[in-house]
Amino acid sequence: MQHHLSTRRLRLTDFLLAGLAIFTLSGCAGVTLRPLAAAPPPTAMPQLAGEPLAAPPTPERVTAPASAVVATPPAATDTPEPAPTLPAVAATGSVVHGGNLRVVPSGAIVGQLCPGDTIGFLTREGEWFHIRLEQTVADCVPDRAPAGTAGWAHQTLLSAPAVTIAEAPAQPISDESGATIAPPADAARAQVTNVVDGDTIDVLIDGREVRIRLIGIDTPETVHPTDPVECFGREASTFARELLTNQRVLLEADPSQGEQDRYGRLLRYVWLSDGRLVNQELIAQGYAFEYTYNTPYAYQTQFKEAQRAAREAQLGLWSPTACNGEQKPAEPTPAVAPPAAPAPTPVPVTPAATVWFSSCRSNPGGAPNAPVTIAGVDKRAEAVVLKNVSSEAINLDGWIMCSIKGGQIHSGIGGVLQPGEQRRFQHVGSNIWNNSEPDPGALYDAEGRLVAYWPD
């Protein structure tokens, strides 16, 4: 009886447990089941004598609705995103004038560039190039930029043989039959070192720096010692710099015009590597007048035709809103110094007269030695040290440093010299300074005024 009663209680308990399980499953049919961690194996229940255990009910499989399915996020990866890279080097070149490497154009200084450094050109914005310093030469200043440094440098500091600096459309020169004229085979090869103004440049020929006057053109004045700056003179000088700065050119002489002018400048046609004749290009773009001095020259017909076309198209100085083809003083603007005043009438007491550049052979005598002074000349190393003794930054682009004994120009002067800054400028080319005899030096600004004198 006792055993029978226990068995009945056990069956009742099983029935209640089974019913509870079914009720639970049916009430949760709309619920998504989430997998749980594997549970430990259940402990075996003791089997009662004479009564087999009923198999537990099989739970109903529940499927989650489609709206409840959550997309599995992509597996995390430890691979970092690639770092941004600089543009590919478009061309290579070198530094010809020591100067500043900057974070952005006209911005903070990263370090100094030295003449002879090898650079890679990345991009360009106007007169500024984004470069990477590929290889350095011996340090010229303590704060020079190391190899691998990227930054911005002005085009006047750089030599870019594979980069066309000029952005004006080409104007090839042709003969009367329409055939394109090429530079002669005997044209002299030269490296432009300085653009004085629209029709005058300095070049290196076989290591010797000489001044060139372009044949057949006349651009408005900007650096005349007594005349004021003329209308469109600054624009003409800027265009000439865009065409010629640091370019390798071919120089063609013209026997009909003689070898030199009365100032000792070589008279030449200047050809660019892309086949353009610079003399004609300046006329064709409206930056120069055709100019015949005494006798006709080789390309007179082409230059006169280029001027006629520029005048009819009202280009450059022929525009009614510019100079209307007149050679007249430039209009003063807030951003530019007004035209030079006429020379004053002499009075009994006057300051020392300004000395103007004529050639490096003449001894200019005294100088103001300001705002820049010649701190020293290392004649054996062919290097000059200049110091800014003023309270303002001085732009040395276009300045001339002379070896008076040899009558030659010390190349490599350029860049901005900060107040109190002292910088070494290395000459590029063959030796010009005399090591065995006294060889004074003279420094002239871009307008040709004597600034400093160094008595050796």
Structural class determined from secondary elements: alpha+beta
For the record, the CATH class of the domain at 188-318 is Mainly Beta
Which regions contain 5 or more consecutive residues with pLDDT less than 50?
A: 20-77, 80-84, 161-170, 332-337, 344-352
Under the CATH scheme, the architecture of the domain at 188-318 is: Beta Barrel
Quote the average pLDDT: 75
Helix content estimate: 10-25%
Strand content: 15-25%
For the sheet with most strands, the description reads: 5 strands, antiparallel
Whole-angstrom Rg: 41 Å
H/E series:
HEEEEEEEEEEEHEEHEHEEEEEEEEE
SSE topology:
Elements: H1 2-27, E1 91-95, E2 99-102, E3 109-113, E4 118-125, E5 128-135, E6 150-154, E7 158-159, E8 188-197, E9 200-205, E10 208-214, E11 217-218, H2 233-244, E12 248-252, E13 266-271, H3 278-284, E14 289-290, H4 300-312, E15 372-378, E16 383-388, E17 394-395, E18 400-403, E19 408-410, E20 416-417, E21 422-426, E22 441-444, E23 450-454
Parallel strand pairs: 10-13
Antiparallel strand pairs: 1-4, 1-7, 2-3, 4-5, 5-6, 8-9, 8-12, 9-10, 11-14, 12-13, 15-16, 16-21, 17-20, 18-19, 18-22, 22-23
